[in-house]
Design the sequence.
């Protein structure tokens, strides 16, 4: 995953991380079958506290010990003591799982709900079950089963079958990667959106039957490793009526041109024969050009517009 520096943001302060005053020596979660919420909650904790995970019932004194994280068991939610259980909540409570509670404590929950479309369904599945979740999603129950991945099945099964997971073991290391990547994704994307907000321009381009609008992101130094990262999310969150985007090409001095949300009227195969267009995808959703002048980039967008 790209570093924060490569994304055009500074790393002096990272919002939404666990307090440095907390220093867990052990993570305890329930024995038996494992679910996505307790698995991912443990992954996030491992990213900040690389300690052993013990799958067992907690002792009473451990619920009072702030150095022991107790996840998805114990009937207590007290982040100051490291307790992250949701089973004591009323049945009509907003769907909330142990993953929700850890994300809240990290200050990442709001962004996770915005950026991770899978989070709310995971909360529903854990607290309401498959039937109610399918109804809430407006799908048949068997559709949920069709979306299962053998990756999920294996990771959860392997997590459930061992009583303790120690640093250095393959699954433990994978879990820490998952936690680190999720935290990096959330913190980097938020800062990336702020960066785009400061630098982007909204262009109105004349078409044959009226104007259409695109987002232009100028070249900056240092150039982000993936200059288009976050543009789609930025448009979804903050800009309405945008049909396309123009951003620096990381492989050359020119720019990439891309349609937003597969807008049917933008087709970049219409400009594939232009002398300064060196790539246009056969499906028409993206093109690369050596052009750098705003006027020329707007001309290419005009020609791709139907």
Sequence:
């Amino acid at each position: 995953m790209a570093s924060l520096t490569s994304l055009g943001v500074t790393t002096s302060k990272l919002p939404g991380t666990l307090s440095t005053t907390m220093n867990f020596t052990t993570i305890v979660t329930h024995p038996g079958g494992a679910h996505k919420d307790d698995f991912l909650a443990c992954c996030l904790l491992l990213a900040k506290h690389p300690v052993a995970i013990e799958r067992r019932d907690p002792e009473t004194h451990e619920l009072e010990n702030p150095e022991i994280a107790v996840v998805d068991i114990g009937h207590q939610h007290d982040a100051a003591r490291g307790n992250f259980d949701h089973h004591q909540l009323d049945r009509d409570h907003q769907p909330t799982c142990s993953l929700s509670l850890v994300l809240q404590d990290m200050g990442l929950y709001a962004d996770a709900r915005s950026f991770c479309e899978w989070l709310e369904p995971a909360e529903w599945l854990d607290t309401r079950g498959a039937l109610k979740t399918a109804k809430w999603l407006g799908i048949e129950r068997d559709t949920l089963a069709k979306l299962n991945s053998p990756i999920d099945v294996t990771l959860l099964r392997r997590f459930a079958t061992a009583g303790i997971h120690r640093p250095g073991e393959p699954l433990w290391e994978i879990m820490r990667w998952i936690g680190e990547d999720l935290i990096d994704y959330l913190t980097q994307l938020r800062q990336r959106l702020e960066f785009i907000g400061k630098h982007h321009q909204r262009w109105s381009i004349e078409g044959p039957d009226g104007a259409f609008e695109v987002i232009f992101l100028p070249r900056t130094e240092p150039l982000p490793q993936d200059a288009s990262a976050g543009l789609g999310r930025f448009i979804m969150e903050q800009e309405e009526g945008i049909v396309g985007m123009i951003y620096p090409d990381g492989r050359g001095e020119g720019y990439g041109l891309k349609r937003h949300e597969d807008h049917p009227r933008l087709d970049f195969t219409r400009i594939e024969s232009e002398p300064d267009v060196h790539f246009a995808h056969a499906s028409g959703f993206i093109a690369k050009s050596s052009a750098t002048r705003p006027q020329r980039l707007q001309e290419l967008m005009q020609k791709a517009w139907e």
